[in-house]
Amino acid sequence: QGYRAEMDNPAMLILMPPVLRNRKDVLFGNMPEIYDFHNKIFLHSLESCLGAPERVGFCFLDRREDFQMYEKYCQNKPRSESLWRQCSESTFFQECQRKLEHKLGLDSYLLKPVQRLTKYQLLLKELLKYSTSCDGVRELQEALVAMLDLLKSVNDSMHQISITGYDGDLSELGKVLMQGSFSVWTGHRKGPTKMKDLARFKPMQRHLFLYEKALVFCKKREEHGDGYDKTSSYSFKHFLKMNAVGITENVKGDHRKFEIWYSGREEVYVVQAQTVDLKMAWLNEIRKIL
């Protein structure tokens, strides 16, 4: 209220930098939606558990879909931060902060929803610790899994919005299921490429995004900024449609490697994960699609 409402206050208009005008939705994202959800719905359902804490897990599961609104908030965060950096020193924000008598600036509050998201799973873990064999344990466990899934999904989509150089619309490739960095060796079957020949070449470092319909290869670029300004971007290299992909789960010489081949082994990619567990997690997701 102390900032967002003030952006509509005619008396404050004179203090507002031009770049901030009519950009309330960029700065605050869908925070009003999140606020309404908690204020009118979720808070009441949690309060109804005061006498019956075993129902907490159910509250989360019942509202699982609503929590997707956090993903929207996090996706807007880079735009919001960029706008904030341009205006943070302005008299408008200083005046709002003075009236509110806040020690912290607005950016600390804009971070709250992101922090809240990571807090839920910690609170649920804590509840589970004291709920060994009582009613509602199964729901609590499911609620924890749902919150961890949401966290992963938000994290994946945050990386995805940093992909540059892709011509089409990434949302047409479906949901991002996994993303991560790998060493990749490429062989094109123009002639017989032997695995031992591939091993001699230096691998490329690639950031892979697994969508429902495609596997996207990017090169990670570290942008240089200071502190939390440092962002990574991923420049698009190429993609493989999942309906023409095949996998070979084991490659001689290293348990962390697997092979992705395309349209009847026309192109072959040997991919090395950082750990065997990570490799298995990716193979599981790829198998589900195939």
Automatic annotation (TrEMBL):
Q: Name one GO molecular function term.
A: guanyl-nucleotide exchange factor activity
Q: Which GO terms describe its biological process?
A: dendrite development; intracellular signal transduction
**SMART domains attached here?**
PH, RhoGEF
Residue ranges occupied by any DH domain in the UniProt entry: 1-157
**Highest taxon of source:** Eukaryota
Q: What SUPFAM superfamilies has UniProt attached to this entry?
A: DBL homology domain (DH-domain), PH domain-like
Q: What keywords tag this UniProt record?
A: Guanine-nucleotide releasing factor, Phosphoprotein
Is Phosphoprotein included in the keywords of this UniProt record? yes
- One GO cellular component term, please give it: cytoplasm
UniProt xrefs under InterPro entries: DBL_dom_sf, DH_dom, GDS_CDC24_CS, PH-like_dom_sf, PH_domain, RhoGEF_Guanine_NuclExch_SF, SOS1_NGEF_PH
The residue ranges of the PH domain are: 175-290
Write down what this protein is called.
Proto-oncogene DBL
